[in-house]
Amino acid sequence: MYLISACLCGVNCKYSGENNLNEKALKLFNQNEAILVCPEVLGGLSTPRAPQEILGGTGEDVINGTAKVISEDGQDSTKEFIKGAELVLDIAKRCSVDKAILKAKSPSCGCREIYDGSFSGKKIVGNGVTAELLIKNNIKVYSEEEI
User: Fold this and answer.
1) What does pTM read for this prediction?
2) Of 21, 46, 80, 139, which has the most beta carbons under 10 Å away?
3) E strand or H helix at 37, and its extent?
């Protein structure tokens, strides 16, 4: 069983109100091999919402309290991102999930590479908040680019 970012299966929960449909992810869901999650929505953010990036580090730094998740218009969404990550982890534990396929480069779901917080399209090495929390709890995290 996988956790999969809901946007990858056609759910319109992306910040823009759209989705990031990935046919391979959707196939897993249609075969009853996946639970869909959107950490940002679970954390209380609306759809659509302003684009968000991690300012001052990575998801690990957000969890440690040394970086923040900020919207393009300057709103601090750190609390919502942490809450969403914790709820996704709770779902994973309750459902005995040990693998996740998450949206690449997202400040929540990005694994191995995320945007740098400048809203310029520049990327850095690191994980989003949810991806980092799942990895720290021994859940294997992949991006849709890896399936």
Assistant:
1) 0.97
2) 80
3) strand 34-37
